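Retro notes (design track)

What went well: tokenization of the new backbones is finally stable.
What didn't: we kept losing track of which sequence belonged to which structure.
Fix going forward: every design gets posted as structure first, then sequence, in one message. First example under the new rule, 417 residues:
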């Protein structure tokens, strides 16, 4: 067994405590937590005491003590860029909580800085690690439904998370993005106590991949607010003689099935006449496998990242706080284990820094397209984009610092409600 990495937890907020902390016992062969770093001294000390490690309110002091060779960054997106570059400059590997950063320029510089310093920088994106995505990719490998050239997704998610999903499903980077937005006034409402809204933005994205493959990704609010369709919405992975379909039910899994047209069906209306349900199994609040029984045999994905089934490892839906998302902890574990094994040179990451940057580029291209009335933006982008400039201006107003200045970022505290 190779040695665990000596790791600092950077950020002691809500996500660290509720999502990551319950997994640490199950990750002892991979990470040895030696420090917690957060400028919020009270929060930092509380978590450090629970982990029996040293607290730091300054990342500079943490780095100067030379006790870590890796870090988990679980902190506001606004400061991901600065912390990542600073850690890379000091030869410290890092796994950064999704999303990657704020702008395309930042993402490019993060990748460049890590490579310059022979440092592993990865993004802990978890959506493509969820059961539906895992089993859908396995089904696609069989070609049972023919060549998949189109994916239609409505009201599951848009943005960085879904961009990553499509990149991993096709195992390709997109070649262009087109986006149209529609803003509708609504009755005033709060999505969270500190988040007040008076309108709703619907976005429709057309993401093209090589070999005539496309994703149509659409959503307004994704939490089922204002009576909208809740997660996971509707997804149709469309092949030449069938589909993998998922739709909203009462939980965040949804129900899913494979719909297949037999030769006879193709000759007589082409309505799918063979339906094969997708099954997700779990033990002690932890997803164990997903499978579907097709005519040629069972197709399955086995979850190798089993966490302890303790009471406090119940991951619940943000919308209801009652529905157990038994796959969520395993998805996060998968990202951490992948990162550690990559650092230890055991594997090549299934989602590397270039994939992460391309997901960010796809998101920035969508914003750029929307600003230009749906103009198609070809990828990759090798020029300065207007949407980056607008985001930079917004971040300066919000935080009072230059979001491209590493020194200012590592000295600044970003408050989260």
């Amino acid at each position: 067994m190779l040695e665990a990495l000596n790791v600092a937890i950077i950020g002691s907020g809500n996500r660290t405590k509720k999502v990551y902390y319950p997994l640490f016992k199950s990750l002892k062969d991979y990470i040895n937590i030696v420090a917690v770093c957060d400028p919020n001294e009270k929060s930092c000390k509380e978590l450090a005491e629970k982990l029996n490690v040293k607290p730091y309110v300054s990342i500079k002091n943490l780095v100067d003590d030379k006790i870590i060779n890796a870090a988990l960054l679980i902190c506001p997106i606004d400061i991901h860029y600065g912390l990542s570059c600073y850690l890379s400059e000091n030869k410290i590997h890092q796994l950064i909580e999704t999303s990657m950063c704020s702008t395309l320029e930042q993402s490019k510089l993060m990748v460049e800085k890590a490579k310059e310093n022979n440092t592993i920088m990865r993004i802990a994106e978890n959506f493509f690690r969820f059961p539906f995505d895992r089993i859908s990719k396995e089904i696609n490998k069989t070609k049972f439904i023919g060549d998949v050239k189109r994916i239609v997704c409505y009201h599951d998610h848009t943005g960085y998370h879904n961009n990553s999903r499509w990149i991993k499903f096709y195992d390709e980077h997109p070649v262009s993005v087109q986006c149209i937005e529609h803003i509708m006034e609504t009755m005033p409402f709060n999505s969270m106590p500190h988040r007040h809204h008076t309108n709703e933005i619907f976005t429709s994205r057309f993401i093209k991949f090589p070999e005539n493959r496309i994703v149509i990704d659409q959503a307004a609010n994704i939490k089922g607010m204002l009576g909208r369709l809740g997660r996971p919405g509707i997804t149709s992975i469309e092949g030449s003689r069938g589909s993998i379909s998922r739709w909203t039910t009462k939980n965040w899994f949804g129900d899913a099935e494979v719909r297949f047209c037999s030769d006879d069906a193709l000759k007589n209306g082409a309505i799918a006449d063979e339906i094969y349900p997708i099954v997700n199994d779990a033990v002690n609040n932890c997803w164990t496998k997903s499978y579907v029984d097709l005519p040629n045999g069972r197709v399955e994905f086995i979850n190798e990242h089993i966490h302890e089934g303790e009471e406090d490892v119940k991951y619940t839906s943000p919308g209801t706080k009652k529905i157990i998302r038994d796959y969520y902890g395993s998805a996060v574990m998968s990202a951490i284990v992948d990162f550690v094994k990559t650092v230890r040179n055991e594997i090549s990451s299934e989602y590397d820094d270039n994939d992460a940057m391309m997901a960010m580029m796809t998101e920035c291209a969508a914003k750029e397209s929307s600003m230009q009335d749906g103009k198609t933006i070809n990828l990759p982008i090798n020029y300065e984009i207007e949407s980056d400039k607008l985001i930079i201006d917004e971040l300066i107003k919000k935080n009072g610092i230059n979001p491209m200045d590493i020194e200012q970022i590592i000295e600044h505290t970003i408050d989260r409600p």
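Added context from the reviewer: The mean pLDDT is 94.
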